[in-house]
Amino acid sequence: MSASIAIQILPKVDTDAEVCRIVDDVIAYIHSSGYGYQVGPFETTVEGESYDELMDLAKECLKVAVRSGAPKVSAYIKAVYCPEGEILTIDQKIGKYQ
User: Three-class SS of residue 38?
Assistant: First the structure.
């Protein structure tokens, strides 16, 4: 792996149920992407070989939230990128805790 992102999607909607429904739609999109990912209580971590592709995925996550009914959405994104080497994988970081 040469890149990893953690993305937290925050749709501006009226109820917690709507937040969960929209975030579920975003997670379904991430799942359909084929990238390795791990869902956490605050964010979802996605790993891959291409930083640009992961950033495109993050951009699309916001659009998925809007298409799912959020009139406004915010996102917090963390990224790690190592173009000439490897990064720690999700499993290397948290596998011992699973």
Answer: strand
Domains and CATH numbers, the chain: 3-97 (3.30.70.930)
In the sheet with 44-48, reading across from the earlier edge strand, the strands are 36-39, 44-48, 3-11, 73-81
pLDDT tens track for 14-51: 999 999 999 999 999 999 999 999 999 999 999 999 99
| Ramachandran sector of residue 34 (left: φ over 0; alpha: ψ -120 to 50; beta: rest) | left
42-65 residue pLDDT tens: 999 999 999 999 999 999 999 999
Asked if 90 and 80 count as a contact pair (C-beta separation under 8 A), the reply is no
